[in-house]
Amino acid sequence: MTPSHRTGGLSRRHFALVLPSALLVSGASGCAAPHQGTGRPGDPIVLTLLSHYASGTLKEALQRPVDEWNATHDRVKVRTKAVEFTDLLTTFMVRQAAGQGADILHPYCLWNGQLVQAGVLRPAPSEHTEEIRRGYGGAAVGASSVGGKIYGYPTEVQTYALYYNKRLLREAGIARPPRTWRELEDAAYRTARRDGYGNTLVQGFGLSTYDDSTTVGQTLALLNAAGGTFVSADGRSTAIDSPAGRAVFDLEHRLVVKGASAPGVNVYKAFQSGQVAMVVSAGWWTGSLKTEMGKDYRDVGVAPLPVPEADDRRATLSTGFMLGVNTASEHPREAWEFLRWLNTEKVSVKSAKKGATATRMSSLQVSVGSLTGRAEDMRTLLSEGSDPNLRPFLDALAYAVPEPNVVGAQQAKSLLRKNIEALWTGQQSVDESLRTIRRQVDEEVSRSW
Amino acid sequence: MVNALAPETTERVHSPRDAGSTGSAVDGRRRTRLRRRQAVVGYLFLAPTLLFFAVFLILPLGFALLLSMSRWAGFDLGDIDPVGLDNFADLFVDGSTFLAPILTNTLLFALGTVALALAGSVLVANCIDKLRLQGLWRTLYFLPIVTTVVAIGNVWKYMYEPGGLVNGVLNALGLGSVAFLQDPDTALPAVVVVQAWASVGTAILILTAGLKSIPDSYYEAAALDGAGPVTVFWKITLPLLRPSLLFVCITQFITGLQSFALIIVMTKGGPGDATNVAALEMYRQAFSYGDWGTASAAAFVLFAVVLVVTLVQLWIFRLKGEDT
């Protein structure tokens, strides 16, 4: 049901349903509704922005432009609220149900189909749509769109590449990072080491079971690199049960069975400790690695994702976040104006050459070691003295495949993760895993919501 | 309460002793009025509680029942779409993971937790009952109850890790490492052990109280008859501890069937679905996937399971002569 349908009068059935529940919801929202301001002279409109930039550098990075906006705008103020990423979707759901949804939302684009279907996200007005189409790469625009309609400004765009430990590869006699899957496998077996008790000392190729995103992200990146996709173009069925899907599952299965990968180990800690030679991950990780590894970060290299054969076309996965406006916001025009100011207005870049400009959001992302979908801004910001490990992620923006964000995307992703883990732990064969994923995911994405 | 008074009043009027006596009839009417007034006052005192239950129990229950037969994304009440029993059918359709492994895991998790916690707590409570400084021991065993599940889960998770304490001990004994939480065969038992360990404190507290209520005279008589400690335990302690055991058994089972916090911290239901349980699946369906209909249907199925399991336990204990 589209938002316009919902604005019509309530049917008798809906009224009967609404009546008892409204008592609870109105009671809850009445108790703790955020102050939104009236917009009358002397009483500014206060917009709330809910994101996952909850701590450390991320929180500070977002607060800087927000403080700048608040200092330069009297009538509209912005107040940030943040929760950890793992709680973000739950928080959207609970707050929205309680009538306390924030004016501006910062969702993971995977959830867009679900949020649009539930009537949470407001489509971007035409003037903003034009700016978004003009300023951002295809993957970023695709991630922020549902059914061809744009719902917000892309903020960070993550592409996937191969992180590798230069020292471990060098010690194994490998001069450069792998470019094909054959080289990847060979390097993984040569670098892996275990002790007499079966404890993994070094994983050749890290497979993460940390959460849905890391487990699924690396598999989908390899799937894209092999020319496959997870969900069909119309979003109504899965396309993983294909030669490309089989090739990826075979590769991962071999790596586990031959001892080059130990999915039980937390890859994200082990890589930092020099216990993983290679791992596929997204660009956001460079910022964390730099902070947490200290001088050992010099051993970290990033290379484009290997492809099955040397002459194959490059492809990888891209995921992203966007800033959109809540359908329940009382001040959508002001909210969109703030987003335009944050995401499209160019300001000078201190660290770059004289006269160089970029958007506030692009500067924000680079300051935390991440990327936006604005390739032009990224090139400006990464021109001099920046981390060379970010460059492969930037290059990948040109060929990355956006993560599908159909209505049941989150559930489809969870189902994929479960079956990947079942494959890695020997509960299912490659064939069984592919068959089960196809059946379960098809059932989910084809539901008539 | 008012209805209950009606037959009594009628009986009095027809009583030969009261018949024809005007004064007694007036007294009877007064008494009836007084009782009615008392009933009204009683209901007035009950009203806040009834209102509380109506708002926080009956209304949500009705709403959950409605949702279990609807499709709803969780935001707009106007979008509730009735689908009849489709959600229940989907849970048990061929290929659904809800019955196996999710519901099976739930029962195994609860059963394993109760069995371990019960055996452990009976043993420990019996030992504590014979020690000095009983308060100290009870407090020590109760500590996990006042510790957050997140802390417990994380500590045990690190202990179970390939390079963790448990595997360190195994390696020191010359044994190979076990991927406790990563192997689908060991993940559920590994979490069950932690849940049992964490819940043993409450059981010990209740069972210690139960042990104290057993009269010493039985033990003295057994000693005079020359009964050994094992016989005393099986023939005296355990049978007389049955009311406490029944309470512990039922409450622990219900807790076990409903719990998921420890699992979400330690394994997130994985690997695959190896440790996924009904409550975790409900949480995910509602809050992650926005499928409140399936979540509510699963909640009612879980409720039915809890009810059946509890009734079976009561029946078994009643067969053993325990009046509940």
Low-pLDDT stretches of chain A are 1-35
Structural category of chain B is: mainly alpha
Please report the number of helical segments of chain B: 14
List the quaternary state of the chains: heterodimer
Biggest interface found: A-B, 53 and 46 residues
Mean pLDDT of chain A: 85
The total count of helices of chain A amounts to: 19
Query: Which strand order does the major sheet of chain B show?
Result: 1-2
Largest sheet composition of chain A: 11 strands, mixed
Shape of chain B: flat
> Uncertain segments of chain B of ≥5 residues (pLDDT<50)?
1-19
Distance between the termini of chain B: 25 Å
- C-alpha-based Rg of chain A, rounded: 23 Å
Q: How would you portray this structure in words?
A:
The complex is a heterodimer of chains A (449) and B (324). Chain A contains 19 helices and 15 strands. Chain A has 449 residues and is α/β, with parallel strands linked by helices. Chain A is globular and about 75 Å long. Chain B has helices at 2-14, 22-68, 86-92, 98-128, 134-146, 149-160, 165-172, 184-212, 216-224, 229-240, 242-258, 261-266, 278-288, 292-319; strands spanning 70-71, 81-82. The chains are: A alpha/beta (449), B mainly alpha (324). The interface between A and B is large, with 53 and 46 residues.
Task: Describe the structure in brief.
The complex is a heterodimer of chains A (449) and B (324). With 449 residues, chain A is α/β, with parallel strands linked by helices.
Describe the secondary-structure layout:
The complex is a heterodimer of chains A (449) and B (324).
Chain A: H1 3-6, H2 12-32, E1 45-51, H3 56-72, E2 76-82, H4 85-97, E3 104-105, H5 112-117, E4 121-122, H6 126-135, H7 138-143, E5 145-146, E6 149-150, E7 153-165, H8 166-171, H9 181-191, E8 193-194, E9 200-206, H10 212-225, H11 243-257, H12 267-272, E10 276-282, H13 285-293, E11 300-303, E12 316-326, H14 332-343, E13 346-348, E14 357-359, H15 360-367, H16 375-381, H17 391-396, E15 400-402, H18 409-424, H19 430-445
Chain B: H1 2-14, H2 22-68, E1 70-71, E2 81-82, H3 86-92, H4 98-128, H5 134-146, H6 149-160, H7 165-172, H8 184-212, H9 216-224, H10 229-240, H11 242-258, H12 261-266, H13 278-288, H14 292-319
Antiparallel strand pairs in B: 1-2
